[in-house]
Amino acid sequence: MEDSTFPEPRPGTSTESGGRGEPAARPNSTDKAPVSLCLASASPSRARVLEAAGLHPSLRASDLPEGALIRAEEARLGHPLALDDLVLFLARAKAEAVAARLVGEGFRGLVLGCDSNFGLGDVSYGKPHTAEVARSRWRAMSGREGRLASGHWLVDVRSGSPDRAPATGAVDVSRLWFSEVSDAEIEAYVASGEPLEVAGGFTLEGRASAFIRRVDGSPSGILGVSVPLVRELSARLGVSWPRLCAGPRPRE
């Protein structure tokens, strides 16, 4: 991917880059060739969302040291990454890392990186990892409103040149309102194990749905990948939605 300074996006806005500094390509209405899609993730929930929308993504985890990357970027900037900048930074890092590997394996298509993080006030919540952290976060979230930001970065490696690959990205933001949750309910939810390895410590489509009374945002975006946004990003790279949906199914 081209060497450029990390962009500073805002909710509802986007960034894009093209090979040799050119703008990302626009849709070609006469080109109907199917286009392959790879999701730079091992997330089964994101894959299910894309598959339900008619896409056939292959999956490839980036396996990046996210904590180290964030620390390095914040040291470069001289300040902590804001929630929206954080998720777009990680989505881009994932997409670019996987795209570089796949090109060497002969892949020619689009690579999508996604990252989600939850913000409560001025605090960003990633994955809790431990029951103690999950318990503390749920006590803080009980009865409050928060923001779930999901960064999306799409890289076009159809040319086979990852260093000059056009790319574009944006952030999808949803707002959530939590019910008052009792200590007993929190204990039972944490004991289920569900909140430990998901952004924010909850899943809307899982057990946490009993405690989320209102959501304002993209129905798919709240699940970690906004299908309308993926459609918009692919169009910016010159790939129409029917072409992306017609992409080949991954090999078993």
CATH architecture: Alpha-Beta Complex
Give helix % range. Answer: 25-40%
User: What low-confidence regions span 5 or more consecutive residues with pLDDT below 50?
Assistant: 1-14, 18-29
Count of beta strands: 8
Number of domains: 1
- How much of the polypeptide forms β-strand, as a percent range? 15-25%
Give the SSE order as H and E letters: EEHEHHEEHEEHEHH
Helix count, per DSSP?
Answer: 7
In short:
The protein has 252 residues and is an alpha+beta fold. The protein has helices at residues 44-52, 66-77, 83-104, 131-141, 183-191, 227-236, 241-245, and strands spanning 14-17, 36-39, 58-59, 109-120, 123-125, 145-156, 167-178, 212-216. It has one domain: Alpha-Beta Complex (Maf protein), CATH 3.90.950.
Protein traits:
globular; disordered N terminus; alpha+beta; 252 residues; Maf protein; 31% helix
Molecular structure report:
The chain has 252 residues and is α+β, with helices and mostly antiparallel strands. The chain has one domain: Alpha-Beta Complex (Maf protein). 31% of the residues lie in helices and 21% in strands. The protein is built from seven helices and eight strands; from the N terminus they run ββαβααββαββαβαα. Strands 1, 2, 3, 4, 5, 6, 7 and 8 form an eight-stranded mixed sheet that branches. The longest helix is centred in the middle third of the chain and has 22 residues, at 83-104. It is globular. Residues 1-14 and 18-29 have low confidence and may be disordered.
